[in-house]
Amino acid sequence: MKKRVLALVMSTAMIASVLTACGGKDDSSNNNTPATDTNNTATDNSNASADNSSAPAENVDYGTGEITIWVAENVQTFTQDQVKAFQEANPQYAGYTVTVEPVGEGDAASNMITDVEGGADIYGFAQDQLARLVSSGAIMPVTGEYATWVAEQNDAGAAAAATVGGTTYAFPITSDNGYFLYYDKSVVKDPTSLDAIVADCEAAGKGIYMEINSGWYQPAFFFGAGCTLTYDLDDAGNFTACNIDYASENGVAALKAIINLHKSPMFVNGSAASNATNCAAIVDGTWDADTIKTMFGDNYACAKLPKFTVDGRDYQLGGFGGFKLLGIKPQTDSNKMQVCLAIAQFLSGEETQLARYKAVSWGPSNKAAQQSSDVQADVALSALAAQLAETIPQGQYPNEYWQLATSLGDDVISGNYDNASDEDLMAVLETFQATCKSYAGQ
Fold it and tell me: Rounded distance, CA 416 to CA 27, Å?
């Protein structure tokens, strides 16, 4: 076998042209790209997506064709520029016309599932849609050296979010879809204690915002109290088991904390900074950082979520961590498949993630990019990084779960449990737990 070469290694001039185009700083280039055998050029197009374990050879002409990419609108132009620079630096891929279209992560999966053949070749999506994509055959596995690259290059949460049943299916591009505390430091003096935050907000007549009727935010209390709620899936993306212990003393403590927060006259159920008024504290994500900076001005501050206290015991609020991923739909042409893999890998690599952060402030999943001085200096991302250490990666959940969590939160907001005993709350959680299990046929 001839000597292996790196799939995306560029000459010094080529690297310079790409970094100039993407605005990346002059850090080390991405030299951890999977190696490939220069003689291992795919020629059988009958089942191209079955094996993509080896990266494309850089001295092979992959022919011509068309590739469509779906990304969020605010990174459409950025992505188009990145792909153009990549093709200029790698002429073996230049025969493909790449079109980048604005389709958000929330819509991409639904569109792909509806019409796989008419969908994009490469598409960005939120990790909670992965099971649906797998079960509908709208995404191909990422195997061999590509899977190893994904695991080695990204933080553990992002790498786990790209897998189903032990198989990698996507390339992570962000590790920033989580939530933490934004606060007005002229009002909130101790951001480490939920009780203290509530007291400060009540004293100042300022609102404290959190969306407790959301299956995304609500687990911050339950997971923080030590509870579990996850689902197991088979390789086809079907739910096979629900791992839940909400009906427990810890679960009751979490529900009591949610009820206590709701009882504050300054509590507002919500997480959208654009809708917040008279606010001094809000649990939100990096997507609202600019809005909150404007709202709080010189008093803008961020921290990981605080601890809450129930019956004399302290618990650290936890929750979910979320990620954006790039998937590739199953391909019938092996040459096109290899070009799609090369582009997806490049768009998820260190330099591109750093350039994307500088362009639109998306937090990197790449471990080296996370150590950039620019990323480290970002107050919101630093708070999120601290919070992610207290969270679990959001796995796959049935659609019905989100509706169930909303109903539980709505009952709290309506005051249905304001005077409930611990026994009453346990009964509520037993019903909640049994219903969650029923979604997996248990």
Answer: 56
Number of domains in the chain: 2
CB 150 within 8 A of CB 175: no
pLDDT-based confidence at residue 17 (cuts at 50, 70, 90): very low
Does residue 195 share a domain with residue 149? Answer: no
Nearest to 275 by CA among 209, 186, 184: 209
Structure pTM? Answer: 0.72
Q: What is the CA radius of gyration of the chain?
A: 23
**What DSSP designation does 74 have?**
G
Round to whole Å and give the CA distance between 388 and 384: 6
Mean pLDDT for the stretch of residues 77-85: 98
Q: Within 10 Å of residue 407's Cβ, how many Cβ atoms?
A: 12
Which 3 state secondary structure label does DSSP give 62? coil
For residue 393, tell me if it sits in a domain: no
Range with lowest mean pLDDT among 105-109, 151-155, 276-280: 105-109
In 3D space, the residue among 183, 423, 199 whose CA is nearest the CA of residue 308 turns out to be 199
Q: Which residues sit opposite 300 in a β-bridge?
A: 184
Neighbours of 330 (CB within 10 A): 17
